[in-house]
Amino acid sequence: MVDEYVMGDVERISPESPVPVVLVRDRSRRLGGAGNVARNLISLGARVALFASVGKDTGGRWFRKHCNDLGIESFWLKEDETRPTTVKTRVVARNQQLVRIDEENAGQINEELETTIVKDVESVVPQVKAVVISDYGKGFLTPRLLQAFIGASRASRVPILIDPKGMDFARYRGATYITPNLRETSQAAGIEITDHASLVQAGRILLEKTEAEGIIITRGREGATLVSRQKVKTFAVKPVEIIDVTGAGDTVIAALSLSLANGLSVENAISIANLAASIVVSRFGAASVTREELINHLAEQKAIPKVLSAEEIGTVLRNHRLKAETIVFTNGCFDLLHSGHLKTLREASQMGDILVVGINSDLSVGRIKGPGRPVMKEADRVELVAALSFVDYVVVFTDDTPKRLIEEVRPDVLVKGEDWRGKKVVGEDVVTSRGGRVAFIKHLEGVSTSELIKRIRTE
What is the pTM of this model? Predict the structure, then answer.
């Protein structure tokens, strides 16, 4: 697509009809649609091969030249004589859009062009680190072409991300991540989203329809929510003054895909994408963000450390409560971190948005476990637990029980091992009095620190 802007001033109403008269001061063009995704990727430092079609017209020639000027490898930019280049003209006065004029033919590309592109896809995808599908419902992405991209990506084991269009998400079956906004999520899932529970339900419906690894629901000022089979997690967005949301989704999927292509976790990728989006929505039009801008904004952010004191954790969690995030708490000695601990912490993280882990101090472990314990010093135990991506905060407590820490954390979910079921759980009254609950997780049979120590000593 070509995004065209007609900029001017309005000083009077037309005598012919009650509409404003725009005195044109400037005209500009920008890459739109998938072209804007490509432009964002280029500005972030990526090399891009763009698959698209344009008409054999002025708009198409401008699009091709602009791709070449930006350094986009547009070898797969096909001319379609039967379809004009999509041009969206926005008439703007004083940063207010008065009208948008669309010139397009949204019918499907012809079979001959489709066959040519499928062959190109099969040869190009094995050479890349990620694939982005930017679906605008303009007829280019036929079912056959979609499956060619998805099949080639899966065969080459590269992530494929899709910015979707329409209500039939089954056509994206096999994608890695899909990034609908809130309205698209609601429509495609067939349910009204009114709260966190219905949001998660809708995300899980789409997971089943698409067999994707995750649905990343973009929510504007509320950030983004990842719904996967392993967990549900909401990522906040930096609050900014919003000037124009045009193209924000393009920036999100560009930053997401480039982050994943470079080996980042999906959690870190979403955080970077949110930051990139917060930069572009503070600008007018379909804007892009550079790698240097992202680096500078990251440097400006004051990162909250994972390891906090009991005094600090209450203040930090207050911000999470304001975002209506579910806080989960569990505790333990975590002496000789093992697979049972990992299972417990991973499952606990899936019960809410923020996981806080309390760890007994060395003196506390010695009093509870007896002589010779802990095997690992406090600093080492804390460092190992804090290194886990699904743990958000770690707090050391010196008492024999976490009662005082639970009173400070005030979790929505208190997690204990299955062996505590039917017993008096420390801090249960604190949690349930606020409407929270206690959850129990089954231990891995035969896996415990005591058992490991016994085996080490005998062997």
Answer: 0.64
